[in-house]
Specification:
- The protein is of the alpha/beta class.
- It contains 5 helices and 4 strands; from the N terminus they run E-H-E-H-E-E-H-H-H.
């Protein structure tokens, strides 16, 4: 599978192992039948993501993620913007570890590109199940990365 994943930082936060995350995203995309992925994932603060939300979606609210999806069929192409502030606040709110919340949010953006939605209760349940699949896949990728000699 052709895969390109770029991480952009407009905050002090950074992904500790970009290659691990790129492999994980590629594995998740394959699991849901994508044929290729080309992702740019930008990490920013609440104010920057809020400005994007107002400018491009006309939503005057804070959010944890916005996915700009340009995918065609199973060829995934997207720009994903994530508020590290919101992810941190949500991790505290839902008694989650920040690292698990960030992979949940990243997988959420990818899953939107793969046709998952979260408007109805049924769609939310399907999205949550798919997020759990991706989170488990992250731990598989992480474990195999530690055992590579």
């Amino acid at each position: 599978m052709q895969a390109a994943v770029e991480f952009i930082y407009d905050t002090a936060f950074s992904i500790p192992d970009e290659q691990l995350y790129a492999r994980w995203l590629t594995a998740c995309a394959k699991k849901f039948d994508a044929t290729s992925i080309d992702l740019a994932i930008a990490f920013m603060d609440d104010e920057a993501l809020h400005a994007l939300n107002v400018k491009y979606l006309d939503h005057d609210t804070f959010t944890d993620i916005i996915t700009f999806d340009d995918s065609v069929g199973k060829d995934i192409v997207a720009n994903i913007a994530i508020s590290v502030d919101r992810v941190s606040a949500n991790a505290n709110k839902f008694s989650q570890v920040f690292d698990n919340e960030i992979i949940r949010v990243i997988s959420h953006g990818l899953l939107h590109c793969l046709g998952f939605n979260d408007k109805t209760a049924e769609e939310k349940a399907r999205m949550t199940s798919a997020e759990e699949t991706c989170i488990k896949q992250f731990h598989v990728e992480h474990k195999s990365a530690k055992h590579v000699s």
